[in-house]
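Reopening this one. Same input as before:
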Amino acid sequence: YEKIATTNVDYEEVIREKYFNSTEGTKIREDLVTTLLFGEIISKEGNLTQNVRVSAGGSNGFSNIRNQESNFEERTAIALNLLKAKPVKGGAYNCILNPNLAGVFTHEAFGHFSEADIIETLPAMREKMKIGNKLGNEILDIVDNALIPDQLGFYKYDDEGVEVRPVQLMKNGVLTGRLHSRRTAAEFGEQISGHCVAEDFCYPPIIRMGTIFIKPGKSSFEELLNMLGDGLYILDAKGGQTAGENFTFGAQYGYVIRNGKVGEMIRDINILGNLYQTLKNIVAVGNDLVLSKRGGCGKGQMNIRSCNGSPHILVNNIVIGGL
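Same output, byte for byte:
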């Protein structure tokens, strides 16, 4: 491809044998394997450069990284099409977020506040994240489940020797659960969850997500488009940061939607928002849940493999930074 300036691909394979012995008499051995293929495709025309990320992986060996040619070809086409796309115009839009972007929002903006050690010393945040508080619309259910097979966030026992359990973090828009270590479960007076994990033996375990995701709703993608009418369809996370309850995420690309029909591609998309307002603005959830088989998370100078997922979601009044 003439306009593809650079490509790079990395392969990562990690095989771990975890042993846990405690004075309680617990003896656990858990073997974990993760494979990950990830890279970047950079297109260039004149002074304009665009980059698109590509990845595949899981915890089930080589099966997840074989036969990825079509995946790379699809991402290459997106990188080339972005050279012809126009920058998005800044403003407030009703938007459909694709599963990748919605999953990253769920992990970064909401998920970390579900980790008990994040909020335990923040009285205002602890009050906002109180079990029983209604944070979103009734259509919104969020779960963390580290027991889902073939996810990078898969494990059966945490590094305190606790058997992990799925946690319903939000049900019908109401906060119903939290991720805990032994210590924080005792402090909060809540059920222990088995989410205290270390990168390796060099670090003390801290509370981490496994696979966090928005549960599927009832709407098809076509129904979401019809409900949206006019707005934006935004795809794939591209970096971002959070500052308390506020967040900024980049998106790799998007499309203008008019009368429920997908129009021209747009680029240079940044999403700005507040967690609690955004949760209330999620007005429809798709029936097409996609769990990412790649991903990671940094916290407390530790990096672990964890995953997220979501169906397509329709969100009203998203602030888009652009020209």
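So the earlier flakiness isn't reproducible anymore. For the record, Helices lie at 69-82, 99-110, 116-119, 123-128, 182-188, 221-228, 275-281.
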